[in-house]
Fold each of these.
Amino acid sequence: MVEPGATALRRLSPAARFGLGAALLCILSLAFFWPGVALYDSVSQYQQVVSGSYHDWHPPIMARLWSLFRGAGWHGQSPMFALQLLLYWGGLGLIAAALARVGAWKSAIAALALGLWPPFLAWDAAVLKDGQMASAMLAATGLVGWRRLTGQELRGIDRAAVILLLGYAVLVRANAIFAVAPLAVGLLAPWEWRRWPTRFALIAVGTLAVLAMAPRINHGLLGADASGVEATQPIFDMAGIAHRAGPDAVPLLSRGTWQKVDAERCYTPVFWDVFASGRRCGFIQDDLDGRPTREIFMGWTGAIRAHPGAYASHRLAHWNMTMRWLVPWHLPLARPEAGSEPNDFGLGSPARIVEPYDALAGELIDSPLGAPILALATALAVLALARPAASPAHALAVPLALSATAMELSFLVVSISSDWRYHLWSMLAAWLAAILLLTRPVPRRPARIALALILLVGVTSLGGRILLPSIGDNYEDLIGD
C-alpha cells in the first residue's frame, strides 16, 4: 500500500521536489548549528552593535544590518546566522529546482550536495563577512538561475533583488568587488563571448568605481570611523620587500627598524597579523601611527617601484600560501571552529554534536580537495570549455567561473592573510560552475586536457603536503607571542 505522503510527493513537480529538499536541508542546517558560531571577528562586530560606535576595520554594513535585528529585539548572532543559511540554501535550492525542471536531475542533486560539503556548510555557520558575502551572491545567482535556466526573462523585481544582494555583498568585504563585478555583469545580462570587450570594460569600470566609492559609503553613509585598516597592506608588503631586498629597501622606516624585523623573525608570507599593535612585532604599526596615509602609501609604492623583484617574490610566496598549493599538510587558519569565542555578550555556541562534523570539514580543507588552487584550476577549465551561446547553463557557468577566477587572482596583489574562509565564495562558485558545465557534453579532447591540468594541480598539491615540513599547527604558533 502506498503511503499518502509518498503519493503527495510524487504529485509534486521535479522543481517543487528539489525546492522542498533545499528547504528541509536549510531547516536541518539551522537546527544542527543553532545559534551559529561567533568567532573573534563576530564578537568584535557585535561589540560595535551593542555600543553603537562603528569603525571600518570590519564591514560597517554588516554591523548596521545586525543592529536592525537587535533593535527589533532579536539579540545575539542567531539572526545573522539564520540570514546566511536562508540565502545559502535559497540560492542553491533555486538552481537545483531549475535544473530539475529542465530534466538535469544529476546536476540538480549535485547542486544540493555541494551545499552539504562540510567545508562550505561548516564555514557558512560562522557569522562572518565571508559567509554573508558568499550567501548573498549565491542567492543572487539562484534568482537569475531560476529564470534563465527555465527559459524566462528577468523581471524588474528580480533585477532589483539581484542588485540589492550584490550591493550588500560588495560592501561586506573590502575586496569583494573583484568577485562581484564579473558576476553582476554576467547575471544582469546573459554572457556572450562575442561581446567580451564591452563586458570586460564594464567589469573594470565597475571595479574602479566601487573601490573609489566604498570609503565614502563606509565613512559617510554608514557613519564608520576610520581605523587605519588601509595601512595593513602596505605594512605587509613593505616587510616582505625589506626581508628580501635588505633593510635599506624601504626608507619609510629606519634601517634599524627593518633589521629588528628580521632579528625578531617577524615576517612570514602567511599573514600580516604579527605586526598588529600589541603583538610582538607591533613596533612597525606603532612607528607608523600618526603618519599621513599619503606618506605611507608613497613609501609603499616607492618600495615596489625600486624593488619589483622582491615585491613579486613576496606576493607569489603569499599567494601560494593563501591558495594552499605547495604547503604543508596542517597549515593554520583553515579549520572551522565548533564553538564561539568566549565573550561577555551572551553569544552562545552550537551543541557539541557539531564537533565531529567540523573535524571532518577540517580534514577535507587540509587535503588537496580543500585547496583554493584546485578551485581556480576548475574555474579556468570551465572558462575554456563553456559554450554560453549554446546553453543557458553554460551562460550561467561563465560569470560564476569568471567571478571565482578574478577573486583568486586578486589575492596576488590584495591580500594580507591566508585564511581559508576568504575563498568560500570562490570555491563555491567554481564548483557550481563545473556542475552547470556538465549539464551537457563538452568536447572530449579539450575536456581531457583540462582534467589532466586539474589533476596535475591536485597531485602537486598533495606532494607539497607530504614533503614540506610543518610551520606550526595553529595560529598561536605563527604569532609566536
Amino acid sequence: MTTTKALDSVYKTLKFQSDAVAHLHLQYQTDSFSQNNLQESLNILYHTSQVAHGKIVISGIGKSHKIANKLVATLNSLSIHSSTLHPSEALHGDLGLINEDKDCLVLLTASGNTSELLQLLPHLSPSIPIILLTCNRDSKLSNHPQVNSLLYASLPSYLNEETIHGLPAPTVSTTLSLILADATILALSEMIEEDVLKRKKQFSMKHPGGSIGSYLSHLNDNLNTTRDSNTKKSFSSQISSSSLLSLNQIRQNFRSSPMGPTNSAAKSNVSSLTSSDDEFDVLDVKQGKSSSNIDFILTNSIKLAKPAQTKVVSHEQVWNLKHDEELKLLQWITLYDFLIVDKRGLGIDTATVKDIYKSTYGSQESKSVENWNKFHWDFMRTFKEIDI
C-alpha cells in the first residue's frame, strides 16, 4: 500500500469513528429504550456506591478487559470504589472479590455473546445487580434474566469494523463503549456530589502526581497541611516524592504566579502542563524565598501606593476566575492599580493585566472560552514575587 492510500485509510477511519459517535449522541437524545436503561444503570451504580457502600466490579475479556482496567482507574480516582474481575480468573477463585450483599457487576462485551461471561453467570448470586455494556441490543447476555440493565452503544452495520476495514478488529466498538462508560461515570460522580469545587478537591486528593496533580495541588489538603506546618520552608521530609513533584513542577510552570515561589533555576514550560498526565523530574525544593526572585520595583511601587489603590485577592479568586466573571476582573483592573494575592507574597500591576486582557479577550470577536483560558493563563503567570 502506498503512503497516499494509507493516509486515505486514516481519514476514512476517523470519519467513520466520528459518525459512530454522532450516532451515539443522537441515540441517547431520541431513543427511550436507551434512556430508560441508562437511568436504571445509574440508579444501580449510585445505590451500590452510596447506599450499600459496596464496590463496582467490572469484568470483560480481551479488549474489553483493557477497557475495564481504564474504567476502574477512573472510578477510583473519583473516590468511587471499584475493581476489575477477569472472567477466567473468576472461575479459579477470584469470585471471592464480589460481595453479593453490597456490590454490583458491570459486564463489558460488544457482541453480548462472550462465552467467558456467560459461563460466569451461573456462579453468581441472583441478588447481584448486573449491568451490561454492549453494542448489541439483542444478544444472549442482553436477554439474560440476570442482567438488570444495559448501557447500550448502538453500532449500525454500516459503521462497524468489518464494513470499514474488512475485518472485525475492535476499534469503533471499543471507542463507543469507552465514551458511553466514561460519560456514565462522570454523571455518577455528579449525582454523588453536585458541587464542582468539592469534586475537584476530592479528585486532587486522589491524584497528587503528574501535571494533573500539579494543576490541582492548591486544593489538596494533604499538601497544604504539610506546607503550613513547615512555614513553607521544606517539604522533603513530610510528603512523598510524587507530591514534591506536583508542587515543584507547578512552581516552575507558574513562575511568579499565584502558586507561590519558584526554583530560580527552573524555566516556565507551558507545554508540559497542557499534557494530560506526564511525569516530571523531581527537583529540589528551595528552602525559603530567594531574594533574587523578588521584583523590588513592583514591591516599592506597591509600598508607595495609597491603600485605596491596592486590591487584596485570595489565591482561589485568581485561580478559579472563570469567563463568566469577566465583570469582576474589569472591576479589579479599573478601580485598582495593583493586585496582591493574600498570604502568597505575589503581586501585579493592573496596567499589565489590561494589556493582556486587550490582546487576548478584550474585543467582541475574541469572546470565547478558549481565548479566556489563554488570557487566564497569561494573567496568572505574570504575577511577580514581592516583599511586603
Amino acid sequence: MFPPSADDGAAPATAGAARRPDPAALAARIRTLVREAGFQRCGITGIDLGDDEGHLRGWLARGFHGSMDWMARHGDKRSRPQELVPGTISVLSVGLDYGRRDDVEAWETLADGERAYVARYALGRDYHKLMRGRLQKLADRIAAEIGPFGHRVFVDSAPVLERALARNAGLGWIGKHTCLIDRDGGSWFFLGELYLDLPLPPDPPATAHCGSCTRCIDVCPTQAILGPHVLDARRCISYLTIEHEGSIDEELRPLMGNRIFGCDDCQLVCPWNKFARRHDEPDFRARNNLDTAGLAELFAWEEDEFLRRTEGTALRRSGHARWLRNIAVALGNAPSTPEVLAALASRRDHPDPVIREHVEWALARHAAARPLAAARPL
C-alpha cells in the first residue's frame, strides 16, 4: 500500500482491480505513454542499490555534504526504495531535456566579468513543478488503462538516489563529475521517478564511457571534484550559491568568478555534450534576460522585485539575501569599472551583516587592485 503525501505528488493507491496486461506489454505501453507525456527518455529498473548505499555512506561519513543535513536524515531510505515507499518493486526513471545550443554563449558570459552567470537549468521555469505535473498525469493515464496501482511521484522531493536508479534503468552512466551522461543525449536533462508496485521487466543498466578523460575534474573552478565520482559539495559552487547559508569562505570567493547561481563548467567541457541532441522546451527558455544580464543590474533588485521576477523559477531557492551575497562576490571578481564600484557602494549599509561583509570584501579587493593597475607602465 502506498500512502499519499502532500509534498511529492503522490496519489492514494489500492490494489489494481482491472486485469493487467503481460508485464512486457505493459512496460512497452508505459514507454509510449512516457513519450506522449513529454519526456525524451525513460527506463525501468528494480530496487537493488546495495553498492550505491556503501558509496553514499562513505561520502556522508567524510562530511562532503556540508550543511545539507537532510542528506543523512533519512538513514538508508535513500538507497532502499522499499523502505521509503513500502510495496515498491519497480522504478520508472524518466528524463526531460533542458540543454540549449548555447555553449558558446555560456563561455562568453563566463569570460565577461561584468555579466552574471546563472546555471542553464535555472534560466527558465522551475523544473520540479513541471515534471511532477507530467509524472502525475502519466500515472493517471496508466491507471486509466490498467486500473488503480501503487505509485509515488518523485522529482528531487524525497530521499531518492535518482542518478543510480537512472543508471540502472539505462538512461546513462554516472560521470566522473557525478552527473548522469547519456551517449546520445549528453548530461543536459532532469530526472524524475515513479515508484511502482508493478512487476515490470527491467532494462539493462548503462555502461560507463568516460574512459581516461578528466576534463570535468580539471576545469572545476574550486577543485570540488577530488577524483572520479568524488565531489566535495563544500567546495562546489552550486552548493555555495544555492544551499550554503552565511558567509562563503574567503579562499573560495575569487574562484567563483561571476557564477551567481549554480555552475555548469563540468558539463560545458564534457565531450559527450558536444554532439548531444538538444531539445527546446519553451518553459525552460531564459526569463528576465538572465542569460545576458549584468551583475550591477541584478544587484539593484530589491526583495519585492526579486520575488516578482523569480516567481515560478528555481532562483527562489536562494532567497534574496543569498542572491545579493552571491552577486557581491561576483562584483568583487569583476573589473573595477565605475558601474561595478557604484553597485557595491549602494549596498554598503545593507541591514544584513552577511551581505555587508561580502560587499566590504569586494570593495577591498578592488581597492587592493587599483594601486597595482596604476603602477603598471603604459
